[in-house]
């Protein structure tokens, strides 16, 4: 056996060990072993790899940048919370060989191939786990052990019958294709076969017309149905003969139902499907709080990895807490705590390399500088020098005449995500207003016509004078503490204090933004819900977690979205329901980080109040009916006892306006995580479906303690595709856990 490629595995500036790395013959597993001892250290599956980064795109590799050139360095990033693998190849050519090869193996393929590959990989993995003596064969005792591992509690006689049917060689063991036959028999989908036969006249195939009937009647496909049926046959039918005859076999039918086209998530909404030419304030924007932290808020580790992960997840609003460091160099960390620190210049460098990568959104990125965290003037100048390495991304409004037009028009217009592609907007303090930057002081007294009431005109002049005095005082204070060069970097996200909705309507600009704590936002929602919605129709609002959340826990973003808050900042490093909702909302639109708000939340005179669903203009409530049919190959609970089998139940949770908040669950199925059948119908009434998120949760029932989490999937109601659909489950970290899924039937009626 070849030793493989010799590379350095780097854990820190002082820990660099040589290891041999090799891709195994199955092209799905990589192992590495020590050069010194020859002992295999570890192995990982290609399916565990999320992406590969070239160059110094990790904190570890940046620390050894002077020792190793970027063309020899790359980072393997895994799904979930597994740590990165930082490697240095012996030459640039070797590095490129590995980087390109890994990209070829992990990049998306046509779904039928992916589905077949996942199934084949899954089968091989189980075979290797159960083959205790590693002789390439499996006896019946090993099969029984395998069933326990796979969450199956099967009658011994039935298991023996399946084993004997698959043992074509009559050797008393299963090997190779015999085990594949056993696995196929084990995974027979009776509920899918029954549905197939309902539309198949001979029970063996679906003709083109029979498939069209199924698509129209069950899947509610009403446009280009014949063309779609032909596409599905060509794409998912494994038999060349059947494809030539334009028919779909039971295997092809199952592959279609398990595909992207058979998913509950509307495939047309996976790409960018919404209008991106509305003002910025008309969008929900994926936003992170204290992005640099990857642990808790008090002693947690600060790392550029936090920025990289957030960007890869579709985040378009990042937070940079910038403080004075040694020799005037700004540092990023959570002020007045014991968190570690990272140089500001490294953060800027990372944003420059990753903000517009292949897997990142091209839409504008916002950098949040909390008002209390600016360094002193010398440090500010250094910060500006660091920012200046991004000349194409920091937008200067004086560069284009059209920006002057947006400003002059006041509250009626502001730039759009489409116009700001590949731009970084900085939020922070600013000396004066945007119009001051363009034209000089801008708070002139209003132009009062001769028809105005004299007393009213005089009162308005008096208020304008007071505003001018207040503005001048604030301007002087800003000049004393803020470097002009840093102020000039802040264009469309000037941070201003929130002093009430009436004050904001009278004096604020669309180019300004206010930040609210979660407690303050909740009080405004409770007391002035409609005013809050109107405010967010023309100006940006950011909401951030309470300072008491030192464990980096999250608040529910849904109540903030209900009043149209655009920038709802969450701790991305903390898994849970709140991040499931965030991922669920922003999984549409190509994960670009922007989601267009409903029309009634973009109208500055809207009457909508989330506490009163009847205030929403439009059709009445709709009914969502979900038949939970079955589950497939559900994972075991983490750290469960050997041989333990889950008792799964499904809970459907609705998040939206208060009147729509609801949850219902199925009964639990005892000792079957492999192919449980529920066949239960759950029904919900939605008053404001435009704001609703649907979360499907699978749990392991426990009558003596809290149920254990198994998997979940969350999506916006607007992205649901009705009909018979599969729901491909995600882990607690939001990563895929193939081939675990639910099979459901969805109906939506008014």
TrEMBL record:
It holds the Pfam family EF-hand_5. GO terms for molecular function: calcium ion binding; phosphatidylinositol-4,5-bisphosphate phospholipase C activity. This is Phosphoinositide phospholipase C. Residues 486-602 form the PI-PLC Y-box domain. The gene is Plcd4. The keyword Calcium applies. GO terms for cellular component: endoplasmic reticulum; nucleus; plasma membrane. InterPro entries: C2_dom, C2_domain_sf, EF-hand-dom_pair, EF_Hand_1_Ca_BS, EF_hand_dom, PH-like_dom_sf, PH_domain, PI-PLC_fam. Keywords: Calcium, Cytoplasm, Endoplasmic reticulum, Hydrolase, Lipid degradation, Lipid metabolism, Membrane, Metal-binding, Nucleus, Repeat, Transducer. It catalyses: a 1,2-diacyl-sn-glycero-3-phospho-(1D-myo-inositol-4,5-bisphosphate) + H2O = 1D-myo-inositol 1,4,5-trisphosphate + a 1,2-diacyl-sn-glycerol + H(+); a 1,2-diacyl-sn-glycero-3-phospho-(1D-myo-inositol) + H2O = 1D-myo-inositol 1-phosphate + a 1,2-diacyl-sn-glycerol + H(+). It is found in: Cytoplasm; Endoplasmic reticulum; Membrane; Nucleus. Its EC number is 3.1.4.11. Its cofactor is Ca(2+). Residues 1-107 form the PH domain. Residues 437-458 have a biased composition (Acidic residues). Signal peptide: none annotated. Residues 602-731 form the C2 domain. Residues 435-475 are annotated as: Disordered. It is a peripheral membrane protein. Residues 118-153, 154-189 form the EF-hand domain. One of its GO terms (biological process) is intracellular signal transduction. The lineage of its organism: Eukaryota, Metazoa, Chordata, Craniata, Vertebrata.
């Amino acid at each position: 056996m070849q030793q493989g490629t010799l590379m350095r595995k780097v854990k820190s500036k002082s820990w660099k060990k040589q290891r041999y790395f090799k891709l195994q013959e199955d092209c799905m597993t990589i192992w590495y072993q020590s050069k010194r001892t020859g002992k295999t250290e570890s192995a990982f599956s290609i399916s565990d790899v999320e992406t590969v980064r070239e160059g110094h795109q990790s904190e570890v590799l940046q620390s050894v940048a002077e020792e190793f050139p970027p063309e020899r360095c790359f980072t393997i990033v895994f799904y979930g919370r597994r740590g990165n693998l930082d490697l240095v190849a012996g030459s640039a050519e070797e590095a490129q060989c590995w980087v390109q090869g890994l990209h070829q193996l992990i990049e998306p393929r046509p779904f039928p191939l992916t589905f077949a590959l996942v199934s084949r990989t899954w089968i091989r993995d189980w075979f290797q786990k159960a083959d205790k003596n590693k002789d390439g064969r499996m006896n019946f005792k090993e099969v029984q052990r395998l069933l326990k591992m796979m969450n199956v509690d099967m009658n011994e006689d039935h298991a023996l019958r399946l084993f004997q049917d698959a043992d074509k060689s009559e050797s008393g063991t299963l090997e190779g294709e015999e085990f594949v036959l056993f696995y196929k028999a084990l995974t027979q989908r009776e509920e899918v076969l029954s549905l197939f036969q309902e539309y198949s006249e001979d029970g063996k195939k679906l003709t083109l017309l029979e498939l069209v009937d199924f698509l129209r009647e069950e899947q509610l496909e009403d446009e280009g149905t014949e063309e779609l049926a032909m596409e599905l046959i060509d794409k998912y039918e494994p038999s060349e003969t059947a494809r030539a005859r334009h028919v779909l076999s039971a295997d092809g039918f199952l592959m279609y139902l398990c595909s992207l086209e058979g998913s509950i998530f509307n495939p047309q909404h996976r790409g960018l499907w919404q209008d991106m030419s509305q003002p910025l304030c008309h969008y929900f924007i994926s936003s992170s709080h204290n992005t640099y932290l990857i642990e808790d808020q008090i002693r947690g580790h600060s790392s550029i990895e936090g920025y990289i992960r957030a960007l890869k997840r579709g985040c378009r609003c990042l937070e940079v807490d910038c403080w004075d460091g040694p020799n005037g160099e700004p540092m990023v960390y959570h002020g007045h705590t014991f968190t570690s620190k990272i140089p500001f210049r490294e953060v800027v460098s990372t944003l420059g390399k990753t903000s517009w990568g292949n897997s990142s959104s091209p839409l504008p990125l916002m950098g949040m500088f909390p008002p209390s965290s600016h360094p002193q003037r010398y440090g500010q100048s250094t910060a500006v020098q660091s920012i200046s390495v991004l000349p194409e991304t920091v937008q200067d409004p004086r560069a284009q005449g059209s920006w002057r037009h947006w400003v002059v028009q006041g509250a009626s217009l502001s730039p759009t995500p489409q116009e700001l592609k590949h731009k970084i907007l900085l939020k922070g303090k600013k000396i004066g207003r945007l119009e001051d930057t363009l034209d000089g002081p801008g708070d002139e007294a209003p132009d009062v016509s001769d028809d105005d009431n004299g007393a009213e005109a005089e009162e308005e002049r008096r208020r304008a004078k007071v505003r001018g005095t207040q503005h001048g005082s604030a301007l002087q204070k800003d000049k004393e503490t803020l470097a002009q060069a840093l102020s000039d970097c802040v264009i469309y996200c000037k941070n201003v204090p929130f002093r009430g909705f009436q004050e904001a309507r009278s004096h604020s600009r669309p180019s300004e933004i206010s930040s609210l704590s979660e407690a303050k936002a909740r009080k405004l929602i409770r007391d002035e819900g409609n005013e809050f919605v109107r405010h967010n129709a023309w100006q940006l609002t950011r909401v951030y977690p309470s300072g008491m959340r030192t464990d980096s826990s999250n608040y529910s973003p849904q109540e903030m979205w209900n009043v149209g808050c655009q920038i709802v900042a969450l701790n991305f490093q903390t898994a849970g329901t709140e991040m499931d909702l965030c991922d669920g909302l922003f999984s549409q639109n190509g994960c670009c980080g922007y989601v267009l708000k409903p029309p009634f939340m973009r109208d500055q005179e809207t009457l909508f109040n989330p506490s009163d669903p009847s205030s929403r203009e439009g059709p009445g409530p709709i009914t969502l009916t979900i038949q939970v049919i079955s589950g497939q190959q559900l994972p075991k609970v983490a750290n469960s006892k050997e041989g333990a089998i889950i008792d799964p139940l499904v809970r459907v949770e609705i998040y939206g306006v208060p009147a729509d908040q609801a949850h219902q669950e199925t009964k639990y199925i005892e000792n079957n995580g492999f192919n449980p059948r529920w066949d239960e119908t759950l029904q919900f009434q939605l008053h404001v479906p435009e704001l609703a998120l649907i979360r499907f949760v699978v749990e392991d029932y426990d009558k003596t303690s809290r149920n254990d989490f198994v998997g979940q999937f969350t999506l916006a109601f607007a992205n649901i595709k009705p009909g018979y659909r599969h729901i491909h489950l995600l882990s607690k970290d939001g990563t895929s856990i193939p081939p675990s899924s639910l099979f459901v039937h969805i109906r939506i009626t008014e």
